[in-house]
Amino acid sequence: xxxxxxxxxxxxxxxxxxxxxxxxxHEKELTTACLLxxxxxxxxxxxxxxxxxxxxxxxxxxxxxxxxxxxINVAATLSVLCKxxxxxxxxxxxxxxxxxxxxxxxxxxEARKAAAEALCEVSSGGLSDDHVGMKIFVTExxxxxxxxxxxxxxxxxxxxxxxxxxxxxxxxxxxIIVNLLYSDNPVAQSxxxxxxARLMLAFTDSIPKIIDSGAVKALVGLLGEVKDVSVRAxxxxxxEALSSKSTKAKQAIVDAQGMPVLIGSIVxxxxxxxxxxxxxxxxxxxxxxLANICGGMPALLLYLGELSQSPRLSAPVADIIEHLxxx
Length: 327
Description:
Blueprint: H1 4-19, H2 25-41, H3 43-51, H4 55-65, H5 68-81, H6 85-93, H7 97-103, H8 109-122, H9 144-157, H10 164-170, H11 173-180, H12 186-202, H13 207-212, H14 215-221, H15 229-245, H16 247-255, H17 258-271, H18 277-294, H19 297-308, H20 317-326
Helix pairs in contact: 1-2, 1-3, 2-3, 2-5, 4-5, 5-8, 7-8, 8-9, 11-12, 12-15, 15-16, 15-18, 17-18, 17-20, 18-19, 19-20
């Protein structure tokens, strides 16, 4: 299909077939497969699809209500389109993110893979603003191929280039990340907590959603001794970010019995013989979270001084103050 006029005519014909109410589900599967083939074969076809006024609304409709095969074809087409910068933005603005996120929950492995790949491609423009680096984000309960694409998506989204985080938040992204705090995979837990920290620092209006999701109790629980040190350090990082932005969040941490846990985390590296940067990060984030909750470092020292007078003292306050002075 080297003739530009034929390419234009073919794309218009295929989009019109999708738009037709007379098309059966099977016919839509064939049409979406043809569109995918045309998009893969020619850059000009990709531009025509992206600029067609009906294409994105039709894609969104199929992703929501089409057959599994049609959904897979559309998701794959979006992946191809998103390799072009200007078309990637059109896919985002066209409203494709929410139905792609929904497709990640499909029972069909191929559908999940196609959705994850599309999400990774649509988010790829955020790499230059990457604040997470090359951390591996392993998710729970999905196959390995999907994991890799979701890793890229979440990493890319953290830069918030073109408003990706905002779009993902509106599509329920907080719940997806918070659920990963309950994974039995420490890498998933650590990176989910770290992503929450960055999310809260970028969007303070996400904090009420995070509090309501039960994340505070989960994060406090991740500070426990049985957890991997990287998980504990990332949980402390998230609690630091949470406590720096919201009075309600500070109270939520207190209500979740977070104060004694954070206090214990300051001395945990020396007490448990931790080595390396994770132990130092655990100390620093825990200390700053406590200072945020108390209203500053002087107020924290005053609180610890009052705590040392308690007849039921269990926290090693002297050791804590010593660590604070060193830090």
